[in-house]
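It is time I had a proper look at our fold encoding. Can you supply me with one protein entry, sequence and fold together? It will help me judge whether the discrete encoding reads sensibly. Leave the record below and I will have a look:
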Amino acid sequence: MPDQGNPGAISYSMTPYTGSWTKAEAGHLLHRTMFGATNQQILDAVANGMDATVTALMQVPAIGDPLAFDSNETIVPFGSTWVNAVYPANTTDAQTVENARVMSLGGWIMERLNQESLSVAEKMCLFWQNHFAATAVSDSRATYDYHMLIRQHALGNFKQLVKDITINPTMLLFLNGATNNVFSPNENYAREFLELFTIGKGPQIGPGDYTNYTEEDVAAAAKIFTGYYVDGLRSSTATSVTAVYNGILHDTSTKTMSAHFGNAVIPNNDGNEYQDLVDVVFLQDECAYFICRKLYKYFVNYDLTSAVETNVITEMANTMIANNYDVLPVLDMLFRSQHFYDISVRGAIIRSPLDAYFAIFNSTESTANYTLDTNMMMMLNIYWLAESSGQAYATPPAVAGWPAYYQEPSYYKMWVNASTLKLRFDAATFVTILTGIPVNGEFFKVNALGFLDNLSAPATAATVIDDIADIFTPKGISATQKLILKSVLTGGQPDTVWASEYNNYINNPGNTTYSDPVRTHVEQVLYRVFQMPEFHVM
């Protein structure tokens, strides 16, 4: 709770926020829950209020399947989905088709981020991709199924997601579950299941004892997980990749967990035994604390102080436990809380590469609207740009995910260094004041005129700058910075000149004599904003 004797003290209260609800608060909410909110979305959030906006954000919209667009896809026609298609029988031809499907998958993921609706769904999909950090496998159908699984459970039940991910073909392949059997036990998935996916390690308190589990628990879990293999990889007859249980490969012995799990005894239950283990592990409240800490660091701040742990994480965990590990009630409470809107946490997160690049495009209402193949190649260019900046969506660098989400003490600071920061600046320059991303004779860059037209008062220079600051800088910028940007917008001329230029552009649609100068001025402003430190935090 805030210190009544110190108005500047941080509020750790998880009671509903009752303070002012302006573009600053609404913008903060949308900055954290989306990859780039537009001016109108922020205005709508202000008008609709916090409660309605949070409710809207808690929806997971339906999406389409990835579509074939590359000529190397020889099984399905251009514009059709391949997610239930076979592969060529010839190994070389199958690899060629797989290369095309990898491109389709990458473009599909990026298009989802670029065309997100008012929803936290895409942010949560990235959260789960980081949490269950399986990388793309050799059959894009399996990778697609993995991504759809985490989307299905994006705001759903954490415990059920753990059960489903355990026998997901991509995870079985990624952490050797597909070769874990009674004759050759493999502890890889069992170890990460406990350490990274469910309960966490905790400080070591003895030989092979990590506070929350022991090495013996890892060995027992590995036996429980035996018996599954993956079938259908790049098959010329099977239309999907599946996890198959074979009882001959399963360890049928009775397993006993350590005192950390109440010495629970887990008898043989064949292909369902893994679910029994998940149920036993989730009897420990630490599972809720573990995932709530990660949610907090992802959406609020990495700084888990004792006050945050006591007042915020405890409330989040209690809510999760009371709701049988459903995620939605936890985030719903967090996004309505006094603490979430405290000024101390605004602008506390350095944007990830995906956050930064899609904020540029999404907030300027810039979407690729060309042919399917051109659109997908433009999205792939953004994928590769983010990859060069340290964040390739479908291939986290380690089983623990991206270091910026977990590596103490740097956390988000790891997103930026001399190389990646220069790349951000160069990319922002390229899509604002230069040509944009070139594909098939088309160029994808910020939609400066469309962005301007949808601001609050496009003909009023000062309001244009105010809106831009609200949209792109979560803690705002100084009056001096606003004056400099306004001078760029007006070309150093009186504000009345800008009003005249804008009105001439509006009154002469399609006439580049009037539209080009206006567009150029807006691009110059955005170019400068995207170089500001204030833009690279959220």
In short: The longest helix spans residues 91-114.
